[in-house]
Amino acid sequence: MQPKPIALKILDVVSIFALAISTYLALFFAPTELVMGQVQRVFYFHIGTAWVGMLGFVIAALSGVAYLVTKDMRWDRFEVAAVEVSTMFFFLTIVLGSIWARPAWNTWWTWDPRLTTAAVTELIYIAYFMLRQGIDDPEKRARFGAVYTLLGGVSAPITFMVIRLFRTIHPVIVGAANANQEKMSMTGDMKIAFFFALFAFTVIFIDLIWHRIRLGSLQDQVEQMKLHLSM
Amino acid sequence: MTDKMQNSNPPHPSLFKATFAIVKKDLSAELRSFELVSAMLVFSLLVIIIFNFALELDVKVRQSVTAGVLWTTFAFAGTLGLNRSMSAEKDRGCMDGLLLAPVDRSAIYFGKAISNLAFMLLVEVIVLPIYSVLYNVNLFRWDLIGIILLGSIGYVAVGTLLSAMSVQTRTREVLLPILLFPVAIPVLLAAVKASNGILAGADFAEILTPLNILIVYDVVFIAVAFMVFDFVVEE
Fold this sequence. Notes:
The complex is a heterodimer of chains A (about 230) and B (about 240). Chain A is an all-alpha fold.
């Protein structure tokens, strides 16, 4: 077994510090929002997790395509890692969003485009794991997984468009779609906390994916050793 | 026979011919047994009856939920048909035969998709008048039928691809709806939205957006399924 690479060890430490600093910035450094109060602080992590969640699904769809073209199992491990980590982060996004929505909208949940798309996307990737679980042949598992992430990646934006036909109450951070929509504006200190949260979660995301890819290749090695022993 | 083979000597029949042959095979098999369509039909009627009691479909409620009830019924019955149609190929070893045939793999996809669509449309054509009679609403309108056609095309386009995947897994029938529904949500939502608009007598401008989405979904997913079907059936 190869020892943990030095770069990964460094990245682990950086992730922990980034998360700690981001927590401090979000909870203490950023000023309290005038209208929503303290609960608005959840927003920094909400955006951070949402960003890496979506990033991971896009990466997964792209590595799915790369796998179908090259048939290289490394792309499959990359895809699984991205989906697994992103599913977790996306779940966190939904939970954090609910925590914010309860005082802000007076409801835990509403069938708004972003929320519904998030829920449907989450279900697509849970279905992805169920699909993979049902297939024994690793090559076939990789192929089907790649096809399904591709379908999911195409379907999610269309879902968003459809649900947008209904009215939305979700606040828009960058560029409101129409004048009626609630627009959030940030002060300088808020922006620092905001962008640092994006940075911190990106680092954590890369770190976790790296770990998951490493785990995936170790799993493959164990499989091969077992096969070798039984022969 | 031998004469014909020597004369024309086609190494690969055209895509259209091969697709047509598969559709013909499926339809004639179905015409002999009616096992698939009859199961889908009886199931649809049962779903409608259950909805009747679950939603207390009185005159007022009916107006607003008819489109939803119809599409839920079609979606459930559709999964039943998609599962059956693909597992029949798998169980009797027909899939291997189809794969061995010297035709383009996409012919298999289009053939299966078209016959699945035919079964689904057949069920819908029978369910619509029955629903109309049971609930005293006229569903025989050309614009509604057009929406149902577009919605069914999108649903079957993804469904055929995913059913080809799910029959090859351990969990088989259970897996298809789990894989299909989240991906098919846009087409179902757009179809419900458009059907609702038509039934409520809305202007054409109001149903234009869902109609556009239906068309976009159909085109995009037929194209994607056409491109990736090879990867799903390759051994």
